[in-house]
Design goal:
The protein is of the alpha/beta class. The protein is built from eleven helices and ten strands. Strands 1, 2, 3, 4, 5, 6, 7, 8, 9 and 10 form a ten-stranded mixed β-sheet that branches. Strand 6, helix 3 and strand 7 form a beta-alpha-beta unit. Helix 6 packs antiparallel against helix 7 and helix 6 packs across helix 11. It is globular, with a radius of gyration of 18 Å. The structure holds ketopantoate. Ketopantoate binds next to strand 8 and helix 6. The site of ketopantoate has 12 residues, from strand 8 and helix 6.
Length: 301
């Protein structure tokens, strides 16, 4: 399988490193990262220990492969989805596009441009250490499902390819509901860890923080259900606890963004949930509060 991973942040780098062990893989990202990979390979430490040397690393401005890849994995930040798609225009008709991103609305944005789209939900705790090096802190499952002009069999083939690369994965028929469940997880975990400057496991304190997290989950699940995603609050909470425990030593992507003085994905996560709530005539004051606090934190740096 020929894979193009577009977006070489922590998660994109981990996926590309693992996939390149058994698939022909190209990773596209920032120039300093691509150059470090070309010189020394892509080093993953922690739960995964490897130096990926078979990988082709390109900077975003470099020429893309001439032949359309079988699969394009989009791993850019949600606010960069449109920009990434513009760059990927030569592949819109022929490649199968897969969003491996946080937040609501990425698949819809991709589906307006690319013909065939799969949705995916991934729970991997990964930290970007320096150009050429990422730290894999914790591993969870990946769920892949048809979104537009794609089938459950294609989702299954990609899940097989992930498993061959050592990444637990399975095909699901109801990826839209899974994307909502992941958005609820991110809405509860990411802003709290980012604002409190805590690693993910600290949310499982059996006290105030865990209670706030549960309140955000309750509010978000109500919006998801009103939007047609049949989530069960208890089941979502159980998954979040399992993911927080599996990635306990990880800094959430939002905490990493704030620490590095970067824009966060708060608009596509809590912002999108609050917006969906407004459109449905519901209130989502906790999501709106978290959005505003994270925005204020972004501006403070
Ligand atoms: O998706 C995540 C993120 O950091 O963005 C995890 C690691 C699952 C925690 O929220």
């Amino acid at each position: 399988m020929r894979c193009l991973v577009f977006g070489a942040g922590a998660l994109g780098s981990l996926l590309a490193a693992r996939l390149s062990e058994s698939h022909d893989t190209t990773l596209v990202g920032r120039r300093d990262h691509a150059e470090a990979i070309r010189e020394r390979g892509l080093r993953v430490t922690g739960r995964t220990e490897l130096v990926a040397r078979r990988l082709v690393a390109l900077a975003r401005e470099d020429a893309l492969p001439v032949e359309a890849p079988d699969v394009v994995l989009l791993t850019v930040k949600s606010y960069d989805t449109e920009g990434a798609l513009a760059r990927l225009e030569p592949f819109w008709d022929d490649s199968l596009f897969v969003s491996v991103q946080n937040g609501l609305g990425n698949e819809e944005t991709i589906a307006r441009r690319a013909r065939r789209v799969l949705g995916a939900v991934i729970n991997q705790g990964v930290t970007f250490l320096e150009p050429g090096v990422v730290f894999h802190a914790g591993e969870g499952d990946t769920e892949i499902g048809p979104f537009q002009e794609s089938s459950i069999e294609e989702a299954g083939s990609l899940a097989d390819a992930f498993r061959r690369a050592g990444l637990p994965a399975r095909a699901v028929a109801d990826v839209r509901a899974r994307l909502w469940a992941k958005a609820v997880l991110n809405a509860a975990v990411n802003p709290l860890t980012a604002l409190m400057r805590l690693k993910t496991g600290a949310l499982l304190d059996g006290g105030e923080l865990e209670a706030v997290m549960a309140d955000v989950v309750a509010e978000s699940v109500a919006v998801a259900r009103a939007a047609g995603a049949p989530l069960e609050e208890e089941a979502v909470l159980a998954t979040i606890r399992a993911v927080a425990s599996a990635t306990r030593d990880n800094k959430s992507s939002m905490l990493q963004d704030l620490e590095r003085g970067r824009r966060t994905e708060i608009d596509a996560i809590n912002g999108a949930i609050a917006e969906r709530a407004r459109a449905l005539g519901l209130a989502a004051p906790l999501n709106e509060l978290l959005r505003r606090l994270v925005k204020a934190s972004e501006r403070g740096r």
